[in-house]
Amino acid sequence: MSETESIKAIKGGEFLIRETQADNIFIPEEWNEEQLMIAETCTNFLAQNVVPNLSRIDEQEEGLMPHLMDEAGALGLLSISIPEQYGGFGKDFKTSMLVTEKLGAGNSFSVAFSAHTGIGTLPILYYGNDAQKEKYIPKLASGEWKGAYCLTEPGAGSDANSGKARAKLSADGKYYLLTGQKMWITNAGFADIFTVFAKIDDDENLSAFIVEKDFEGLSLNTEEHKMGIKGSSTRQVFFNDCKIPVENLLSERQNGFKIAVNILNIGRIKLGGATVGASKEVITQAIRYANEREQFGRPISKYGAIRYKLAQQAIRTYASESAIYRASQNMEEAMEMYMASGLDETKAKLKGVEQFAIEAAIIKVHASESLDYVVDEGVQIYGGMGYSAEAPMDRAYRDSRINRIFEGTNEINRMLTVDMMLKRALKGELDLMGPAQKVAGELVSIPDFGGSEDEGLFTQEKKYIANFKKAVLMVAGAAVQKLMTQLGKEQEVLMYLADMLIELYVSESLQLRVEKLVGMKGEGAAKEQLDIMRVYINDAAGNIAKAGREAINSFADGDERRMMLMGLKRFTKTEDINTTQARRNIAAKLIEENRYCY
Amino acid sequence: MSETESIKAIKGGEFLIRETQADNIFIPEEWNEEQLMIAETCTNFLAQNVVPNLSRIDEQEEGLMPHLMDEAGALGLLSISIPEQYGGFGKDFKTSMLVTEKLGAGNSFSVAFSAHTGIGTLPILYYGNDAQKEKYIPKLASGEWKGAYCLTEPGAGSDANSGKARAKLSADGKYYLLTGQKMWITNAGFADIFTVFAKIDDDENLSAFIVEKDFEGLSLNTEEHKMGIKGSSTRQVFFNDCKIPVENLLSERQNGFKIAVNILNIGRIKLGGATVGASKEVITQAIRYANEREQFGRPISKYGAIRYKLAQQAIRTYASESAIYRASQNMEEAMEMYMASGLDETKAKLKGVEQFAIEAAIIKVHASESLDYVVDEGVQIYGGMGYSAEAPMDRAYRDSRINRIFEGTNEINRMLTVDMMLKRALKGELDLMGPAQKVAGELVSIPDFGGSEDEGLFTQEKKYIANFKKAVLMVAGAAVQKLMTQLGKEQEVLMYLADMLIELYVSESLQLRVEKLVGMKGEGAAKEQLDIMRVYINDAAGNIAKAGREAINSFADGDERRMMLMGLKRFTKTEDINTTQARRNIAAKLIEENRYCY
Ligand SMILES: Cc1cc2nc3c(=O)[nH]c(=O)nc-3n(C[C@H](O)[C@H](O)[C@H](O)COP(=O)(O)OP(=O)(O)OC[C@H]3O[C@@H](n4cnc5c(N)ncnc54)[C@H](O)[C@@H]3O)c2cc1C
Ligand SMILES: Cc1cc2nc3c(=O)[nH]c(=O)nc-3n(C[C@H](O)[C@H](O)[C@H](O)COP(=O)(O)OP(=O)(O)OC[C@H]3O[C@@H](n4cnc5c(N)ncnc54)[C@H](O)[C@@H]3O)c2cc1C
Fold first, then answer.
1. How far is Cα B542 from Cα B545, in angstroms, rounded to an integer?
2. End-to-end Cα distance, chain B
3. Which of A158, A401, A494 to mutate to test the pocket of ligand 1 (most atoms within 8 A of CB)?
4. Cβ of B405 below 6 Å from ligand 2
5. What angle do CA A403, B276, B105 make, to 5 degrees?
6. Is A388 in contact with B225 (Cβ distance < 8 A)?
7. B361 to chain A nearest CA, in Å?
């Protein structure tokens, strides 16, 4: 990649102030044959190995989950993006996202899979030295060893850096002796390798250690009883002067919190992928049930109330998916760029993901809340059967609920979204002030109501999105000015801003996706996708207006308030469209195809 | 009650076209000492008998639930509103609502209690002849016999009248022989008395029968496995030429559907009461947890993100509650009025409830969705512990979800809300056309922007609510005109209208409640309630605007559309208020009192 190209590449968070061309994003309609084959392998694996066993998995039948992991390993599903030198396939990030998405429909199995391949493997892959990687990665890649990740403690959840676990060097200098209690550890019941975070002596920051299950002083509590993902092993892990050879310190002393954060960045976008996979499956089940179940003499899929739900489920899922793969591609390109600029592969990958940490947090929130919407309406479509443990919605509903809690709660991710954005602006990495001032200037000038001459298929939506950006910049700019250092304490304002950013990013991703799709296949082949885009952006405008209004009303007064509210109205104005008809069109195709088909 | 008073009494559905005076509603701040003592009995009963046993109850420990029912019976809790002649306390409807509310915090026990005292007892109480009442009611009132209600079948849920169960007279004319399969029958596992709905021969409509568990030909399936309310017995009940003495036909042949519907009317408002009771308990738990749990060096209740949630939980709950007791009082007054006009007590009670069936459906939807909001944020506030079966939110979250499904799904109740309203208008019972035309006229005249001189504490909110009514009338009137007989098929429009009606009714109830409260205790003692009112109505305006806009855009075009949208904007305009500060005030008091306190 040439220097000029790398300068032009979009940076994380820059979506707020820069326009993206549809050609520059990746859309899921572009998967190549090899990727589709891998996806099919995943789907077949679930159909054959996981779906028939969901109840046995949820009962945590002895040995079943590790056995499924072995089988997934035998198919290569645990090592898609592991470098070939460690026995993996060395595929790109998007392909690993696709695998995560497809397996995301596998309920508890999906959680075990994600934890193993993500937080269970990546700390060592990205931060291990050669010896550590050679020792652990091939076995994690094959599934012979299973991985877990021990960060959370009873008193340290969202505030992960505050954990009490402590390590000290043994008298002979050969071991770290680790004492502490870790909680909510996924895969703990069968994991062979634990990446454990703890402070050494009185360090300010965490360090990370690679701990094997047989190291002296490690013990497991019994399984936690949970609302859902009951098949996923979750335990407390106790360390009592646990003997960790010094060579098992991961990366440098006190580098643990950074590792934890960076691994979570990947985890967040991956979680987005998994929830989209789950959503698609739930939608398909809901469509099938609605087509089969008859009341008042016809299938309930004939009723507008049901069609509305099916359409909304598809709209939210398609929108999330658009953002996820756009960001995945961005990460991949950033990785390539960093590699081209001379960074080694591992560092380049980490920096690529970190670059788009804002987008990852956005996606985590949007996709997990979309899935919760999808399962909730799934239950409702099933009626009484939605409440039955014999039908699939009960499990889907319970399993889904974890996604807004782990990998950083959605509150934490919302706040991070805004926080990271502002920090980048402060550091001069993102020029928000310039554009924000420009918008502020626009507020006092006479608005340009001249309709553009160009009446292209996406003219209007592009204008809306440009306006959404102005809305966010206006509110964020004013909030920063008004509240200054207080802003961190004004969490409600952070939440409103996050909601605005999320709707902006997802709207834009969706618009660009549909634009690219129309470019590829023509307008006729994307009629419903155009409807999805229109309805989503119409609703997004309302959400942005509401959040913006609450924010403005919380910190502005008098004339300034009036002016900003007027600006907000202008920036969130959309033409009236028949959303009801659009949703019917979207649902009609789902019902006809009897499955999620977008 | 004098003739003039009875003429002036408000009718069901009339809230849309008539103003109510704050003095004319009942508010929960008016419970008298006796009622508060009864409430305390309920609270103590739960604390001593139910809460310590929640897990055992959910495991359906043999005999436990019927035993708890017996204990509740011994305290008189099963017979609060049963006439004294049948061994009850003969208390008024509101008091029975209060008991339902308080016991609503009892998870599965609440469901067993509600089913027994509601659908299990009331069909006989309201429709039984003297002999039937004398035989069954005293034992149902004491709890010696437990009741269940068999309407739903595998193929007949929402469409309850379509069931296949059939009864025919035996050759000797002494028995009805009933054959069929009933599904999802609450309390079936231990019920002694089943009210069963089935058609006789080829009747068009259902009849109802009182069936004792020992009647030959009745059998039970095993317990259903459910998402939640696991302690509530739910079974299929099979009837195989089940021998029912002819004297156990309830009411008249083919009167069953009417019985079912009328009993559901009561069930809906009672469900509202129960969900409010559950909400308050969950909010208290969430507050306590937020006050105890520390992250980043302080209790999480100090964080704006958490305070926002606590405030919203309280706002929705207080709003639901306002509507519930307003409607309960209305029902009670209607009952008295009917009695005064010469109807016998039973008929008067039924007609009183039926009169406010629209309000009951509204309440069912609003209160069940409020509880789902409350438990969802409850889980979120608990973070990882929200997902643990050891903490209370998991159960609350799963148990809550049934409420949007039974007693008529929320979709069915939304449609009924609009449907009943329009039917009453057609029958001339409600003059909607006049007011709707007046609003339509207003659309083409110059709006009166003159601010009123009177700047009372509620002037603004009263104006908003008057405008909300105009918004509903405008959209409903146009929808009826445009879509005519098609309207039933345009379910989306029915749903939008229902959402508008719900927000209107609840907003008005809340405003009237706070007004009456201020009248009773002064403004200073109701500061937070005033904030609750302002935030709720502010949000309601947004919701009404959104639903109205989607409705209008679905059926109107051109100038007409433009005019209606302008009208809608005018009718849903509210002054900007600092909702963030208001929510903080509301939360501050909750946090300080460490419990739900409104
Ligand atoms: C099933 C399951 C599996 C898990 N797997 C793992 C695993 O494998 N490894 C691991 O290390 N951890 C794991 N976790 C832990 C998970 O990451 C934490 O539960 C999560 O980070 C939240 O922490 P917490 O539970 O302590 O909640 P808390 O941090 O106590 O949060 C409680 C509430 O307070 C809010 N809150 C907290 N701080 C703030 C603030 N500053 N401002 C505003 N609001 C705030 C939160 O958003 C939440 O709403 C798992 C958890 C579960 C339930
Ligand atoms: C735990 C539990 C306890 C219960 N207890 C009892 C009991 O004690 N006695 C009893 O008789 N019944 C009981 N029920 C049954 C309950 O009342 C029904 O489940 C409910 O009425 C819904 O019917 P259904 O399950 O057949 O759903 P369906 O009617 O099949 O509905 C499926 C979906 O279609 C929608 N739908 C249906 N018709 C239409 C339409 N015309 N237009 C638009 N949408 C439509 C529904 O809203 C729902 O979203 C219980 C159910 C449960 C789960």
1. 5
2. 33
3. A158
4. yes
5. 80
6. yes
7. 17
Dist CA A188 CA B89 (whole Å)? 57
pLDDT in tens, A209-253: 999 999 999 999 999 999 999 999 999 999 999 999 999 999 999
Domain boundaries, chain A: 29-146, 148-255, 257-412, 421-448+457-593
The pLDDT of residue A2 is 46
Domain A29-146 has CATH 1.10.540.10: yes
DSSP state of A214: T
Q: Which atom of ligand 1 is nearest to the CA of A224?
A: 1
- What is the reported pLDDT for B485? 78
Please tell me if the domain spanning A148-255 has the same topology as the one spanning A421-448+457-593: no
Query: Which residues of chain B, if any, have pLDDT below 70?
Result: 1-7, 447-454
pLDDT tens track for B539-583:
999 999 999 999 999 999 999 999 999 999 999 999 999 999 999
3-class state of residue B388 by DSSP: strand
| Closest of A277, A105, A245 to residue A177, by C-alpha | A245
| Cα B441 from Cα B475, distance rounded (Å) | 13
Q: What is the ipTM of this complex?
A: 0.98
Q: What single letter denotes the amino acid at residue A477?
A: G
B47, HSE (Cβ side, Cα atoms, 13 Å): 7
Q: What are phi and psi of A244, to 5 degrees?
A: -115, 120
Does B493 contact A295 at a Cβ distance shorter than 8 Å?
no
Q: Which helix (H) or strand (E) holds A148?
A: strand A147-150
CATH (residue range A148-255) = 2.40.110.10
Give the count of Cβ contacts less than 8 A between chain A and B: 184
To test ligand 1's pocket by mutation, which of A151, A184, A209, A404 has the most ligand atoms within 8 angstroms of CB? Answer: A184
Whether A33 is catalytic is no
Which tens digits make up the pLDDT trace of A468-492? 999 999 999 999 988 877 888 899 9
pLDDT digit string, tens, across residues B95-112: 999 999 999 999 999 999
CA dihedral A214, A217, A222, A227 (to 10 degrees): -90
User: What is the rounded CA–CA span in Å between residue B555 and residue B578?
Assistant: 35
Cβ distance of A404 and B226 shorter than 8 Å = no
According to the CATH classification, is domain B148-254 in 2.40.110.10? yes
Q: Which residues of A touch B380 (CB under 8 A)?
A: 404-405, 409-411
Q: Supply angle C-alpha A295, A296, A302, rounded to 5.
A: 70
- Angle (CA) A546-A549-A555 rounded to 5° is 145
Residue of B111, B162, B184, B295 to mutate when probing chain A, most A C-beta within 10 A:
B295
For the structural domain made of A421-448+457-593, what CATH number should be given?
1.20.140.10
Closest Cα in chain B, distance from residue A403 (Å)? 10
**CA–CA gap between residue A63 and residue B140 (Å, rounded):** 51
Question: What is the assigned CATH class of domain B3-20+257-412?
Answer: mainly alpha
Q: Between chains, do A405 and B386 touch, taking CB under 8 Å as contact? A: yes
What is the residue whose two structure tokens read 């989607």?
Answer: B550
CATH 3.40.50.300 assigned to A257-412:
no
Which ligand neighbours the alpha carbon of B494 most closely? Answer: 2
Question: What contacts B61, CB < 8 A, 6 or more positions away?
Answer: none
Q: What angle do helix axes B491-521 and A304-340 make, rounded to 10 degrees?
A: 90
Helix (H) or strand (E) holding A234: strand A234-245
For residues A368 and A410, the answer to whether their CB atoms sit within 8 Å is: yes
How far is residue B380's CA from residue B382's CA, in Å, rounded to a whole number? 5
